[in-house]
Amino acid sequence: MKRERNLFLLGITMTISACGLFGFHRDQETPSASAYFRGTVSPALSQQVLEEKVREFFDWYTTRVDSLVDIQLVDNSGVEDTGRYAVNFDSTAAYLHILTNAGIFTRDYIEDKNAYFQLCAARIRQDSVRTATPYGLDADLILLSQEYEEDISNFSQASFANYSETENGASIDVTIVYTLRIDFVIQGDRLLIDKIDVVTPEGQEEGETH
């Protein structure tokens, strides 16, 4: 029986907003594949290639998710008797370090996560937050869900659709229990994950603006 899931959709919108609020703008657009690899051989692009990249990502995620979710991103601010909480930036640095070392995400993807942490910190201070898990920080920030163990159990049954090549890479929709749209870009001789979004039943990415 299909049951309702508690997806971390708020964070997607906030992540997009964070880039503008805190100045984490991309320095420049990634060159197109043809410009990037003029006179050389670019990585192959096809649905089969992207499916394999997604499965490599799933393998990495399965071995690292426990370390990621065990990181306490929010803790007591240290002000006695206030009950207020704050983002722990030592913890967020450790989180981002794991993503950086993975070698499968773009710098922009990692900077977007950092921007989200910065946004959460500002909102927590503004709202005098008194809970240890505000703004979805108790959810998995990569698959954007609070039920990552169920997600992992469905990795082997993942289905793929809507493969599309872009100017500097390709994207694909991946359905586990819900559907994610994963964007890859070409950097150097590699395809790296640049963005992961939840796709709503209507097909519009959560947080997308018009």
Please give a structural write-up.
- Helix content is 39%, strand content 19%.
- With 210 residues, the protein is of the alpha+beta class.
- The longest helix is centred in the first third of the chain and has 23 residues, at 47-69.
- It is elongated, with a radius of gyration of 18 Å.
- The two termini are 35 Å apart.
Class derived from helix and strand content = alpha+beta
Number of strands: 6
Q: Strand percentage, roughly?
A: 15-25%
Overall shape: it is elongated
Uncertain parts: 8-40
Radius of gyration: 18 Å
Query: Main beta sheet, described?
Result: 4 strands, antiparallel
Give the overall pLDDT as a whole number.
80
Order of strands across the biggest sheet?
3-4-5-6
Q: What is the N-to-C order of secondary-structure elements (H for helix, E for strand)?
A: HHHEEHHHEEEE
- Share of helical residues: 25-40%
Distance between the termini: 35 Å
Q: What count of helical segments does DSSP give?
A: 6
